[in-house]
Amino acid sequence: MTSTGATKSDAPSMGPARNLFGDIMDALKGKPEFLPIADINAFTSEARIKEVLQDPDLQLQPEDIHHHLNYILQRPAKKVFLILVRCEKSHLIADLSSTDFSDDDLPIIERYDRDLKKMMADSAREPPKCIEFFKKNDAAPVFVFKQWSFMAPMFQSSRFEYELKPEIPLPLIEEGKSQQSGFSSVRKVKVHPSHIEGKTGYLALKQLKDMDDQQKYLDKERKNLVALRGLDHPHLIKPAVICIQGEKVASFFFPWADGGNLRDFWKKDPTDYAATSGWMLEQMTGLCGALASLAAKNCRHSDLKPENILHFFDNTKRGTLKITDVAHNRAILPPEFDPQHSERRRQLVEGTGDGKLSRRFDIWSLGCVFVEFLIWAVLGQKRLKEYETEMGPLRRFWEFKNGSKDGSKGGNKSYHLSPEAKDWIEKLKEKINHPVLNEVLKLIEKEMLLTNWDRRLTASEVHARMNAILDLAGEQSLVTPLEVQRVSGPSDETAGVPDTAAVGQLTSGSVLTSMPPLDTAEAQNNTVGSQMETPLAINNTDGFSTALRTDNEFAQSFFSRVGRATPRERSQLCDVCSTFRIWEPQFTISEVVGNFAARSSQCDLCKLLHTVSKGLGLGEREQLHCVRRASTMNMTEPDNRPILSLFADPDGKSPQLEFAQVGYPTLPLPDSPRQYQLIRQWLQLCDSEHGHGPETYLGDGTLQMPTRLIYVGDSQIHLEVAQASSFVRYLALSHCWGNGPTLRTLKSNFEALRKEIPINLLPLNFQDAVKVARGLGASYLWIDSLCIIQDDPEDWEREAGRMGLVFSNAYCTIMATSAASSNEGFLARQASPPLSATFKTADEGTLQISEFMEDYHQDVELARLNTRGWVLQERALSRRTLHFTKTQVYWECGKGVHCERLFKLNNPKATLFGDSNFPKSILKYYKGGRITLFQDLYQRYSRLALTRISDRSVAILGLEQRLLEVFKTRGESGIIHEYLQRSLLWCRPDDTFLARIPYPKSRKTPSWSWMAYEGPITYMHVPFDGVDWTDEYASPFETKNSDTTSGSTLKAFARELTLDRVDLLHRVKLDEQHQIPITNLRGVVIGKDKRRQSRDEITHYVLLVARVEGKSGGKKEFVRAGVAWLLEQNVGSNGEYVEIS
Questions:
Q1: What is the maximal distance between C-alpha atoms in the chain?
Q2: Which residue from 793, 1116, 1080 is spatially nearest to 948, judged by alpha carbons?
Q3: Does the pLDDT value for residue 351 go beyond 50?
Q4: How far is residue 367 from each of residues 224, 347, 445, 489, measured CA to CA in Å?
Q5: What are the coiled-coil residue ranges (predicted)?
Q6: Which whole number is the average pLDDT over 336-345?
Q7: Secondary element (H or E) of residue 220
Q8: Rounded CA gap, 456 and 453, in Å?
Q9: In the prediction, which pLDDT does 1016 show?
Q10: Hey, which of 234, 426, 772, 871 has its CA 20 to 30 A from 826?
Q11: Which of 318-332, 548-562, 841-855 has the lowest mean pLDDT?
């Protein structure tokens, strides 16, 4: 095919081409100019191209027109076609197809052709087809010049980086005023809609300023943003597009923040945000998470300030704060980095002195931002302006002076928190009256604003702490700025707590009979439920198995009242953990511990699994094997113990997570409204559903008031003598004395304490008990050292005997389980917040996995408090008990144990001790169950410590009296008439001997009672229904008119024994270590095996007694000496009736 117009050097003015030329010129946008893709497509429609080709001046045949049209549209050569029209070279269009010149050749680069001795054109295409085209004409210079307007890039969602020639214009149709910062400028722009895929809108265009080693830092910035692009965090701004144009020009596009930066946000009235101040905590937590994500990629921000935290409006009510300008985030700062380019107050240049930064650099800066955030929220705008004025551009959060213990060293000097910063933190402490915000401020001051950087928390640690605090906050209002005239006072402590009749206000005048009834419908909605696949059995070292269950009906009821925490964002997970489907039945994890360690810096779950593995004592080369069992992950060997707990978000509706406990891994803050809300709901449930409240027993006449109570209903607490005529609710404290409380009631101060008990003089345990009582609305408290006159023996004996009634009639017992002495306090937890990781299911459910914490056996049974002798009856006789342990609070009643993380535990021993009317729950057991009960109780008690060993017989007196009442029998000193034989056959363990206790005459205890001895006891193993009891002894209780007698004697037929050394070694167990002549030993046969195979092999269960010489005017007296398992040959037929004292 031929073209008659191909050789013309300059085309005459032609109609269709001139019209198209005019349209192109009208459509050019921006500065520098570009032709939008939408217009390129419109101008290269088949009709417009055909119109130009059909121009008579081109002299093209119909078949040529058809050929060139297809080439331009399909090759394509649309842009080349339009560029030729723009250059007024339309007569060259016919040469395109013959030289294969197309859009693929663009852009055209001008070069000098030595052979032709003239400027030619070239392109990146190999081989460059445009050369042949431009050899035929002189259009190259004008083509190269005009082509750039047609080269504006199309930003595709699948592509992030663009390398462009410097002359290529960016497709911007709106540009705002440039805002300058230390290293860059930023302006608001809008990309032409046809040049960007997806949602269109405003973007922020950042361009670096010219500096030395521009290429070096441009490369760093590009690499940083590429890494940032791979981080998917809702509080981190991801770059949208990177355009590199030559060695010194780069354009970085980010989403535009309609709300401005955080500094702009603080210009708003904080009172508008008081009702939703939980939003502030959400944003703080999210910002910490963003820094943790950066740190996991070995990145840091290095210039964190309010201006680099942007406020985005989105589908949430208040929008989202996001960190931007993540540029100087590697270990080395550029030489130009100087405090003048950033706010001095937030910059604490630290490290080795060679410019390297610590990995905790950003935490200091974020702590400064958080302080300002709290000033705005708590103190208000006016005070924030005062703060800005006081700090000024030359003031810092730090100062550099002579070193001390707390400063970070730097030669002979060190960094310290500045006096101005300390002063503003103190101002916040004075005004914040909410425990959640107090925790935030404590975290900032104690863990973030540490000038010694290696003591500062890492980003992931701060994020974990903030997540824990956020879970505590729920949806409640946390702050009210001063502009709203904050009203503080006692009511703040119980704000938001339902004032239910079941809980009630425990005031001085609240008599139980006048309490209004609980709403029935409400009570039904609070029934304890269980939605667990199968209860998890946890085997304890005490032989009792604890069943762990979910308690989701109660959990949902609780969260419906108090509000839910903000849903957790998905954790940062590695490639391995992101494939886990923990919600699937029998899901298993099996991996070498060292692999968790290697990935722990970039994966929250690996960090959790590594921590748990180390806690289990596994080495780096050992494997962790665990499998999901209902709501926990359990070791597969050797003991199936749970090591991880699984939680489902209360708002979630995912059917895949029905196995998990509804709730959160984190715990309510100690002494917080949320903690007291939970305890109140436990009380309400127990009152309404279980009937365990003391008012249940008002009608049977068993309730008696303690002699004295402590009134805590207002700020002036004092000792009161209780009125027997009316019963008021009170709480009782069970605690370890340790070295003794610093304040006790004595004869000398009794009257003074009736007027006032100075709360600052109370030991910390007692102060905490007052807080709990007030938090639960109780007006009265019973504490032994204050309610018993300690230096009055008569008062002490009387009140010690009533101790069982005191705890039995208390509305609830507070057990200071975590404190080893009265002066430690029990509210503050000693355990760190649990690590956790968050997953999203396919149906958008939120699953959180955390360290297992519900170790009731370790937290409660093995706690020091439960090693004390008095505590056994205090716990057993209490109707309901709150255990304040080192890890969490447990609620114990006859229906089981509730955990603060809302799991429910069922342990036979716990159920027994938590029984509201101990020990009636055991009456459903068969006879052997009763025997097991008292033997277990007495064995446990015998191993407990007493400050005064002579209290052994009285510290359990209330519990013993209760047992005898329920068994409808008589007894004393640990011996029960109904089960006399088994009661008498107690013995020492194999590894220890006993010692007689020197009791005062008023509490003389018979030798046949284990209470007469110091040391642990056990019982002879006597098979149930396998023994014939003899009649060779008489019960000391048969002729008594009272249930207990002091100094009773046991009458029995004591037989002579035939024993050799082998028998003494294997068949005899003496109580005490001192030698007893064999000739002085006698045996009382209590029972014999029923087996009849051979008479010689029948075991005789024998109580050993020894003759005591020189007492009662020469009359033979016998005392207990031990027990023995003897055969027929060892037991003589001769003997005598004796009295065993």
A1: 154
A2: 793
A3: no
A4: 24, 11, 8, 30
A5: none
A6: 42
A7: helix 214-229
A8: 5
A9: 95
A10: 426
A11: 318-332
CA distance 672 to 377: 20
Closest residue by Cα to residue 584 from 902, 834, 854, 839: 839
User: Does position 656 have pLDDT exceeding 50, yes or no?
Assistant: yes
Please determine, for residue 492, whether its predicted confidence score (pLDDT) is greater than 80.
no
Neighbours of 486 (CB within 10 A): 14
**β strands within 916-1008, DSSP E:** 971-972, 975-976, 986-987, 995-996
Q: How confident is the model over 301-308, as a mean pLDDT? A: 86
Percent of the chain with pLDDT over 70: 79
For residue 527, name the pLDDT band (cuts at 50, 70, 90): very low
Please work out, in degrees rounded to the nearest 5, the angle formed at the alpha carbon of residue 964 by the alpha carbons of 1121 and 1033: 40
Alpha carbons 802 and 955: distance in angstroms, whole number:
10
Distance of alpha carbon 52 from alpha carbon 86, whole angstroms: 13
**pLDDT surpasses 50 at 596:** yes
Pairing outcome for strands 731-734 and 812-815: parallel
Beta strands in 772-875 (DSSP E): 780-782, 812-815, 836-840, 846-851
Q: For 566-667, where are the alpha helices, taking DSSP H only?
A: 593-599, 604-615
pLDDT tens, position by position, 72-118: 999 999 999 999 999 999 889 888 888 888 898 888 887 766 655 45
Instruction: Output the pLDDT for position 7.
Output: 37
Task: Provide the token pair at 1035.
Answer: 């019960």
Give, in words, the CATH class of 160-256. Answer: alpha beta
Measured at the CA of 631, the angle between CA 627 and CA 635, to 5 degrees, comes to 30
Q: Is pLDDT above 60 for 209? A: yes
With a cut of 90, say whether residue 882 has pLDDT above it.
yes
Sketch the domain layout of the chain as residue ranges.
15-150, 160-256, 258-477, 972-1140
Q: Is the pLDDT of residue 1079 over 70?
A: yes
CB 837 within 8 A of CB 605: yes
Q: Are strands 161-164 and 241-245 parallel, antiparallel or unpaired?
A: parallel
pLDDT tops 90 at residue 128: no
More confident call, 560 vs 907:
560
Identity of the residue numbered 922? I
Integer angstrom CA distances of residue 1029 from 239, 857, 1020, 1102: 88, 37, 14, 11
pLDDT value of position 833: 83
Whole-Å CA distances, 885 to 270, 551, 812, 824, 827 = 39, 21, 16, 13, 8
Strand partners, 202: 190
List of residues 6+ apart from 325 with CB closer than 8 A: 181, 184, 206, 301, 303, 308
| Residue with the larger pLDDT of the pair 764 and 506 | 764
Tokens for 65, please give them.
């027109």
CB atoms within 10 A of CB 979: 17
For residues 684 and 500, the answer to whether their CB atoms sit within 8 Å is: yes
User: Which residue's entry shows tokens 């003496």?
Assistant: 1070
Of 749, 743, 746, the C-alpha closest to 769 is: 743
In one letter, which amino acid is 278?
G
- Say if CB 773 and CB 781 are below 8 A apart: yes
Q: Quick one: which of 813, 795, 783 has its CA closest to 711?
A: 783
The hierarchical CATH code for the domain 258-477 is 1.10.510.10
Phi, psi of 943 (to 5 degrees): -95, 0
- What is the spatial distance between Cα 674 and Cα 938, in angstroms, rounded to a whole number? 39
Here the tokens at position 144 are: 């190269």
The confidence score (pLDDT) of residue 609 equals 96
291/359 Cα distance (integer angstroms):
11
Query: How far apart are the C-alpha atoms of 781 and 769, rounded to whole Å?
Result: 8
Residue type, 534: T
d(CA 321, CA 265): 10
How many angstroms separate the CA atoms of 248 and 236, rounded? 26
